[in-house]
């Protein structure tokens, strides 16, 4: 065993020495680094590999085997090829190759793996806000969504601790990890409105908060030396809680949602849906949908942002069942030997994740399992973009207002701003 290891080490040293000697003999002339054939990386990756192969029969055989496997994979993937040449713009020809008539396996599909690995390493951010009248179960529902006590400052080991009334707008961040994927989740819990005698302009602190996050992002983007990854505190989704009155939308909710819907993706929900009968729930949902349409309130997912027919089919189904009638809890109960999240009442347990009891599962699937990335995209491409364009078009806007630091550039051109900073 030790003899074998020694032999392997000797072979490896011999290979390295030979490769080093080759590199030394073929070293580039000074200043010839741009030429590909003299590029040290090229020499290292190409020629070194060649020398290794020459010196190692085992590796040669392995390489041959790999090539054969790759060829086989390519053959099996070959399907009927259609070549489509489109000439939408006169003079501009674009070819679309469908299938895999690529003389073998190229490996484009591996890009997905690369993206997956990168995302897993970097993790991602998701910011969710809950808005609605006081006592509707906002703080409880975010805990239900992420199956942890995320709406508090810290995850306390005291499971029995009661959720207290939210008295100020507070954002709490947690890093949630599931199967190696990290998500920095920020929950923006807002105090319930509607308690005051005069509820005029009660949406202002929330609208202000949303816009402040866009402003923060814009400033970061406009910096000359901007960060590689700009911290994203923008609100990706706002769950709007409607009281289960069984009537119509209240004027305060209409006014609130009208304003909020223009700057952020709103997902309306009927809170404490356990207080409604099945018929009441169906009728109430229908009335709310009519009210939303009549008042021109934009809620997520918006029709105009459907990307294709497939998207439209999925989103139409969601639009038909909005607002979701939800029940929240952070307590677990034993049902048929299984632990389930639920609310224990005198007549039984309302299982939060049971589709027959409420629509919490539909909401969770929309927010986390199917549309999380889309919510982020809509925030960036639609809401933030609208804010950015408006801000940059404001006639009185100047760079000092954005508090841009004009730091010296590395090449000594201190303080010169580019003509188009984005
Ligand atoms: N029946 C019922 N009660 C609920 C539900 N969700 C929460 N509750 C209860 O409602 C009360 C208020 O819940 P919170 O989560 O603090 O409500 P909130 O909207 O955050 O309240 P504020 O912070 O005052 O705005 C608590 O006693 C919860 O247990 C629900 O789905 N159904
Ligand atoms: Mg609260």
From TrEMBL:
Cellular compartments annotated: Cytoplasm, Cytoskeleton
CDD domains named among the record's database cross-references: CDC_Septin
Keywords assigned: Cell cycle, Cell division, Cytoplasm, Cytoskeleton, GTP-binding, Nucleotide-binding
Keyword Transferase: no
Any one GO BP annotation for this protein: cell division
Gene Ontology molecular function, alphabetical: GTP binding
Example of a GO cellular component annotation carried by this entry: cytoskeleton
Domain Septin-type G: 122-394
Family: Belongs to the TRAFAC class TrmE-Era-EngA-EngB-Septin-like GTPase superfamily. Septin GTPase family.
Name of the protein in its database record: Septin
Name of encoding gene: septin12
